[in-house]
Amino acid sequence: MPVEAGGVTLSDEQRLAWLRLTRSENVGPATFRELINHFGSAQAALDALPDMSRRGGAARSIRICGQREAEAEMEAAERIGARFIGSGEPDYPPWLRHADAPPPLLAARGGPGHLVRPAIALVGARNASVAGRKMAALLARELGESGLAIASGLARGIDAAAHDAALTNGTVAVFAGGIDVIYPSENEALFSRILDAGGCAISEMRMGWEPRARDFPRRNRIIAGMSLATVVVEAAKRSGSLITARLALEQNREVLAVPGSPLDPRAAGANNLIKQGARIVTAAADVVEAVAPMLANPPRVPPADLDAPPSDEVRAEPGDEQRKLVLEALGPTPVEIDEIIRFTGVPARTVLVLLLELDLAGRLERHAGQRVSLK
């Protein structure tokens, strides 16, 4: 079940510029990609950030990550054996590359070989039952024997059981904090076993970052995005595992659930997923069957030119009338970018530039499905 390899390899200089750009204020994954597409390189985008944010109406100068700051983070990563992988590089998870707004850079620690393998996300309750843990372990083991890596979030309960059972055949732990911050701390021994077995951990957050509640949905989008399918073993009605399942559906990935007793509140979320159309899982073969069509058509690595010279279109600043039309088309309700282009009649490239300016000024919010709104 190979995935096509390929892509580009960043030079040390490019990798540093990518890290600086990702760590600069108001530059999220979608904004990063638009900046690279528009300017041709991260360094050119960094040079343009002050003027773009000013034109977007920023009340103050935005913070741009300095070279020394980025170098210090790279040095900290090297000290623990971690490195940064760009979204166009061969070691980057191929299915994540094709997800919505993938992280431009991932800090990776351990053996990166599992990152390019087809993966299945196994997620569920932290206060999992003995039966739930046994089921997660059984699925992880058998899916691994089928050639699939196991991705999860290193949380207690179902996540920990899945990682532990997948040690022999390969597992990837996705962190909500920095790659050097093991959370929860009780799983430090498990994480050491993952590394010793050749497994891997990844994170998009800066080194030393302590995870907050809002960081776990971001972590969950990576788990869902890098996986062909998300399997929910046990989950309460308001479980974070259901966020992972929703994000998987948004990425056009399979969602499956293990049914549980109606009397157990830990099974309510998984049972509800089944009511809504998720496939029932009682054995690993159910998962393998569900992802077989995706395995038959692995994602291809798109060509990338990281140092394309900016065109005349890049150098041309949008006119005041164009800026006014786009601003009038925006509001607090999310709207598709294509609708803005059709409604205003402003060229697509110009609309994207104007949205970038607003984004860098902190005035734009990006939503799933290529939708945007004013903050």
Short description:
The protein is of the alpha/beta class. Helix content is 44%, strand content 13%.
Going across the biggest sheet, name each strand in turn.
1-2-6-5-4-3-7-8-9
How many helix segments?
Answer: 16
CATH C-level name of the domain at 109-296? Alpha Beta
**How confident is the prediction overall: mean pLDDT?**
92
Overall number of strands: 12
Strand proportion: 5-15%
Low-confidence stretches: 1-6, 303-307
The CATH architecture of the domain at 109-296 can be given as 3-Layer(aba) Sandwich
User: Which of globular, elongated, flat, extended, rod-shaped describes the shape?
Assistant: globular
Rg for CA atoms: 21 Å
> Quaternary status of these chains?
single chain
Q: What report would you give on this structure?
A:
With 375 residues, the chain is α/β, with parallel strands linked by helices. Among the domains are: 188 residues, Rossmann fold, CATH 3.40.50; 58 residues, Arc Repressor Mutant, subunit A (Orthogonal Bundle). Helix content is 44%, strand content 13%. It is built from 16 helices and 12 strands. It has a 9-stranded mixed sheet with strand order 1-2-6-5-4-3-7-8-9, sandwiched between helices. A 3-stranded antiparallel sheet has the order 10-12-11. The protein is globular, with a radius of gyration of 21 Å.
